[in-house]
Amino acid sequence: MRTIFFIAICFATIVTAAYAQNNVSPYSSIGVGDIEKGYFDRSSGLGGAGLALSGGRFLYNSNPAAYSFLDDRYFHLETSARYKNINYSGKAISTTSNNQSADLQIKKLTAAIKLKPYWGFSVGLLPFSNSNYSFYSLKTVQGSGSFVDAYNEGTGNLSQFYIANSFKLRKNLSIGLQVNYFFGQLQRTETLYNTITDSGLVTINTQTLNNPQFKLGIQYKPLINKNLRLSIGATGSLQTKLRSTEMLNIKYGGSTLYNNDTYSTGYYTLPVMAGAGIAAIYKEKITITADYHFQNWSDISKSGLSYRLVNSNKIAGGIEYSKKLEFTDNYTNQKIKFERIFYQLGGFYSNSYLQVYGKQLTDYGITMGIGLNSMRNTMGIIAGLELGTRGTTTGSLIKENYTQFNVTLCYRDIWFTSKKRYN
Amino acid sequence: MMFKKISVFVLIGIITGSIACKKADINFGSEFINTEATQVVKLDTFSVDVSTVLLDSFTSSNKGSLLLGGYTDPIFGRIDTKTFFEMAPADYTSEQFPVTSTFDSLTLILTLNQSYYGDTSKPINLYVHELTEKITPSDNGYYLFNNQQFATGKLLGSKTATILPTRRPADTICIRLSDELGKAFLAKLMNQSDKDLKTSSAFLEYFKGLRISSDQLSKVAFGCKDSIAMRLYYKSPDMYNATKTFEFSISNKSHQFNHIAVDRTGTILSNLEKQKELHSSVTGNVSYSQPISGAMIKLRFPNARNLLTLPQFTQILKAQLVVRPVKNSYNNLYPLPAYLRLASTTVFNQIGSNLIYPTTTASPVTQLGNLSIDYLNGENTTYTYDLSAYIKELIADGSENKNGLLLLPPSPNFESQFNRVAIGNRNNTLNKIELQLYYVAVK
């Protein structure tokens, strides 16, 4: 019954989210859009730093090596939703009355199974990037010094479906291989209008992207002494070419002027991405962690009229306090620790892959998180708050101050058991 | 249970969030990220073929204007006008004309319509002649043309006048006509059995009409209203012995027409009559329009279909024609036409339908050029037209359209006003005609 209810919620959120893409960012018109910087998992409250983290009850999606540390014989299911409110400032914001946008979206659906004590397996759907924008600008009339007005609109996203296998090589050493299948569609619509055109000249460019990517991860978490465990983790993926097909449709005055379903076929290259993290876990209560991420975008040397893709890097870190209850198993008389609640505080600073008008966009903020596990059933919930700032108001750029609220629902159940546990 | 509650809250939150969606207004006001696939391109080097063509003849009847005088135009030559019209007597009763009535005078009264061209400071000699031939429309019985004339008899009167065309209320010119004619009219009015003045048709048999002309000395051509009157002054003995009047007026306006004679000898257009068309390249990269004197400007777009071969050409967005009158070719003495239209035409330079504004409304509006005068240095005086529809048609039409468009004032201005224009062709350095094309290029 609980399972059905949970699945129903997941379904409802997916359906609803499809209608709720309203957060606009003009920056998401560049490249593949805004690349998601987090995984909407337990690391969200720690500034997104999760490369060195693993757990028995919650999924850490940033490092595929983490799945083999999940509790044995359990089946895990997680879904997340995000509410985001953006406050814009800058010269390009024409009115002060309408400088906000807000939306709520389903962000992920992941599942994991601990197949063997040494083997964790996970599949899921994660967001990679999303593009959603609408803004007015000008466009040069070639061969003259004049401009036409342009209204730009874009929607779409790039998602990744992944399958990850994680193996424990030693008690404290795990490696993981994740196969991501990227897929998505980005639609960019440009409407030109002014006295030159008696009706709008609408250009719709629909880009479909897909291809697999491989990601490797490793985690090593030695026990330094009775109370302190150190954990280090790293992930990396090679340059990946996403197959790209662009359809171009141009309409003028209601009739189609130009239509080409294979206007351009080629590749959109994702760069080398690497990350490393470190964590210290004290008495299984306090965790301090930090991550560094790097994406080598400048090798791809993609640039446009006013932008350039540049190397991006990010540092993130946080601290977590976890409150555990201790029980004694009635059958085995073993002591069992049960995590009742945890609190998180974190922060991040990143130089994004966009350089617009010569300025690399930065994104920084603080995060807070709280997680609860139900004593009565097998569900858990993580709630996170993120306050951040992206961009700058210098030049004609836009600064986005955002507040986002994440909720992750976690469900788990016994997958199979070697002996009968319940009567 | 607690989790069910939380889940319900999440659901409610999601639904609320999707309803309460907000979007921000962002306007960069400059170039940001635009698609490179679609480009709007402006092209102003497109060729426009400009020439002066001869307007053989045009309907000059019933234009509401009597043209008088003449002037010597430095470009168009010597232009002289004559006007022909029929008169009709007013209705009368025999009581108005007792047999004791005595003749006073007969006067022709012209009211200026305030249009003029030339130098108004010089006096002008006007001559009124009686027609000896009935005014008869030539071809289908409706129209009279600028090149028609009818025979005249004796001179009825003349006057040397200095006109003040801009005076308001309108200036009038009175020309005293011969007493002999006036007395004859009065005699017929007094004679109750005489039918000549009873009806206009009977009067036409008796008095076929008038012609007003001037001589080669005139320095101004001007227009009069077609409410011209011939007034008979007489006295009939009564208590006051007051002067009484009886009026003749124009009854059939379609028989009122203007004759216009042009002598282009010695001007740049001297070969126009013979060659019918003078290309702007042989007349100093300038073409001339004064339809009333028979010169019109013809514009052709011989390379329109070459647009299709332009790189990435997809669609015309707009075609704007900018016509630039030549600097110093117009001034207060020789003003520009306030309106110039573009009309379709044939090989024979017949005037066809007017170019209208692109509009979806039912009633078409003729494009008249939106004249903008650069009073400062004369280089940016322009007439502008939206040729989008026309150029699109030219491109769509498989065969090359060699007929082009005529540039001329709307009717009745072009048949009754002397306003003229000289425009530069593509090679005119200062006042170049320009077809500005905006098109979509898809990369």
Keywords:
heterodimer; A: 423 residues; Porin; 14-stranded antiparallel barrel; 1 helix; 19 strands; B: 443 residues; mainly beta; Jelly Rolls; 2 domains; 6-stranded antiparallel beta sheet; 6 helices; 24 strands; 36% strand; elongated
Fold and architecture overview:
The complex is a heterodimer of chains A (423) and B (443). Chain A has 423 residues and is mainly beta. Chain A is built from one helix and 19 strands. In chain A, strands 2-3-4-6-7-8-9-12-13-15-16-17-18-19 form a 14-stranded antiparallel barrel. About 1% of the residues of chain A have low confidence. With 443 residues, chain B is mainly beta. Chain B has six helices and 24 strands. About 2% of the residues of chain B have low confidence. Chains A and B meet through helix 1, strand 2, strand 3, strand 5 and strand 6 of A and helix 1, strand 1, strand 18 and strand 24 of B. Strand 5 of chain A pairs parallel with strand 1 of chain B, so a sheet runs across the interface.
Question: Mind telling me the CATH superfamily name of chain A?
Answer: Outer membrane protein transport protein (OMPP1/FadL/TodX)
Give the tally of structural domains of chain A.
1
Order of helices and strands of chain A: HEEEEEEEEEEEEEEEEEEE
**Total domain modules of chain B:** 2
Spatial ordering of strands, largest sheet of chain A: 2-3-4-6-7-8-9-12-13-15-16-17-18-19
The profile of the biggest β sheet of chain B is: 12 strands, antiparallel
Give the radius of gyration of chain A.
23 Å
Write down the overall mean pLDDT of chain B: 86
- Using only C-alpha atoms, the radius of gyration of chain B works out to 32 Å
The CATH topology of chain A comes to Porin
Identify low-pLDDT runs of chain A.
15-20
Strand content of chain A: over 45%
**Shape category of chain A:** elongated
Helical coverage of chain A, percent range = under 10%
CATH architectural label of chain A: Beta Barrel
